Amino acid sequence: MLTSEQVRRVLREQIAPYTLRARALVIEDRTGLLRPAVGDGMVLTVADQEWFVLSSGPILHIRRRLWEQRADRVALVVPPDAPLSGLRDLTSAAAYVPAGGAHVLKVLADVHLPDDTRLDPLAAILLERPAGLALLRSQEITRAALPRAVVSALLGEDLLQASSDAAALARILRSELSVPESAYELCREYAATLSAPYQPLVAGLLTFGHSRALVAQALLQADISRREGQVSSDPLVVEFLEHTAVNDVALLEAFAMRLEEALLAEPNWGRDFVRRFPRREITHASRILPAALEADFRRQLDDLVAGRRTAVDDRLWREHLFYEEYKHWVVALGRLALLSHLCDEIERLLANDADLPDLVQAYVERISAGDLAWMELGELAKKVIPLRAEIDQLRQAYQKARTALNRIFAEAYAAQYPHLFGGSALPLVVHLLPKVVKPRLDTGEQVLVVIVDGLGYHLWQRFRSDLIAGGWQLEDGYALALLPTVTAVSRYAIFSGPVAKRLYPDLAEPDDDAPAEDELKALTALFPNRSVAVYKKRELKIALDDVVASIRGQQHDLIVVVINEVDEALRSPAHAPFSLHLDDYAFLNAVLNAARGSRRSVFLVADHGFTPDGDCKWPVPSGAMVAEARLARVSQPADNDADVPGVWCKDLVYELGGPFLALYDFGGRFKPQPNVGYHSGVSLEEVVVPAAWLKVGAVAPTLDLRFVDVPAQVTEDEEVLVTIELLTSAGAPGEVRVEVWIPNQPPVIFSAEPQAGLPFQRWQIPWRPTLPPREPVEPQTARLRAIVYCNQTEAAHAEAEVTIRPRPGKYESAVAALLP
User: Fold this and answer.
1) DSSP 180
2) Which pLDDT score is estimated for 33?
3) Quick check: is 199 in a domain?
4) CATH number of the domain within which 450 lies
5) What beta strand segments (E) does 275-323 contain?
6) How many angstroms separate the CA atoms of 457 and 429, rounded?
7) What tens digit of pLDDT does each residue of 415-433 get?
8) Looking at the domain assignment, is residue 245 inside a domain?
9) What is the mean pLDDT of residues 516-540?
10) Same structural domain for residues 636 and 494?
11) Is-contact 360 479, C-beta < 8 A?
């Protein structure tokens, strides 16, 4: 019911247009909301005119009230089609004014709707739902959109702006407001504007009279039971299907699919909705149930551990409602797949007796990404407890394979080490300033050299992704650290070359706080007539602004900044968090940000890398002194040290006081105290370091696509996994689209986003090859094709050919069956 003041507002708006041209009005109250408040009459002042308004009733009563009031202007509020023959003297000259639901809503709610009689019985309930009416305010609503607008107001959900039928269904389910029977016809009209089979589903939900959420849950649960081979006899489902006049239970699947689409269209609400479902085991694929996602995780993980696959198929995962909540699982499985197939690649390297350049190149291009993944999995295992056993198993397998690879690298590096100083295709860090930086200075460039203590190439894989994403162009490269891989040797060598023993007596810790006099002398000798500045920890801590100003200025031709943050983090306890993100290293970020505003060329290099702590302890060789946790110095090797995974390093070009046993095992150490990481050994992860030029500016992404390990021949009807690999050698392309065409099956189209720290990604797609029916049955050649699109433009493509052989016995048995 309306209040007296609300009725007065409506009537004033009705009367106002007629104040200059009529003295009598007949107002047709189509909503039935005006007459009760008017009663025996009320006096309204409209445009300085007094109007007497009364509602219809017995003729004599009306005449008596008119005689008593003796009003000059009269408005009679009547129901539709009311008989007024007894008042012809009044009504013959009166103007007839309709007062429908649209007018009432316009005056009282400032909602502009077309005048339609279907609104009249709904005006009262719509006024009781101001939040719903607020959705319609300031919107221009046509007559065709009226059903959608009314349902929006009744439910308090904006269906007018729904991006799809699925989103509209989600909003209908999200609302807990009921729909009155008087609106059922409009609800059916609205449902008729949707695509099939949304039409019967939405019409049924709006007009069923039960909780829409409960009905939707029952439908989904019934379909799940059906797909699991179980029989569901939920009476609510049976009643709903009868209500929608759907006698074919097969449409239950169609309804369930539409409901899934609705949940995916509004994922935040959808996840809350699904969490109300009873937990149950499930084996079939589902886009909304967490149990289905976990089951597929487990299935693919079992295949990885068993060696049946070397990549995961994450296409369905990305479409799942709970994908974001299971992101740690997805990342963990991706990293496990990376370790799995890198173990295979390492086996091939070992079997092929790869030489030193091949080992280094393989590490730079691929295996270093596995080392990074191995570290990430150590943290991920704490977040995905159900996968802990498999993570440990694959990490141990990778650790074993990497140690075997490090062994042949260590032996080759120690054997060739003295010969590398004269110059070779493998650059040492000692060559970087004279052979890489000096030519730039000679051309007049000003250079900033950033030496990051302890930045291994595996951590660089992550840093380089962050740099590219931050707008840097990279001219990527690498160098090899000196032995032993300790700061006292390798970083000093960057400044001054393999100079006399006095620079690092007994591997003494170098001065990290301020430049050493010997370092400055060495730089002055290498760059005569150049202004050189060196900054270390002390200047960065107490005078960072001065360092930044120096980098941005032009006073010095060469500036060298030593960053110790990574190396210091490696000394933290193993359980302490170790960041793999560039943004978490404040001084390094400050120096690079300063370089953005300068005209300097930036050269970033590390003195040595590190091996992560793998909780593997080795006995200290008898009578040995242990330095830097991984380096034992003795006068000569002992027989009982043969089992220790190390290489004896001697004749190192420079004198360090006797032979050293440098460990090469991945993640091993002498020291019992667990740390984040260690160095001083002769492993790939400790020796190979980045040496890259940086320049500000975006770079076009470079993508490469290829089929990997495609067999030359496959057998008909036997499933094979087609492996496709995407390589991102430069740039940060964001999301890309991959399309794969495999004979006799629909094209596989999916989106992918290259991940930080991974220079390549893999997917495996199942394929069951078939042969066309022809005589005679002979092997056929099938062509596999794949294309990757970046920003709607083809960025790379790949092709492969496979011979499909007839399955033995298949056609012989078919012919035999036809013989008498």
Assistant:
1) -
2) 93
3) no
4) 3.40.720
5) none
6) 13
7) 999 889 887 789 999 999 9
8) no
9) 88
10) no
11) no
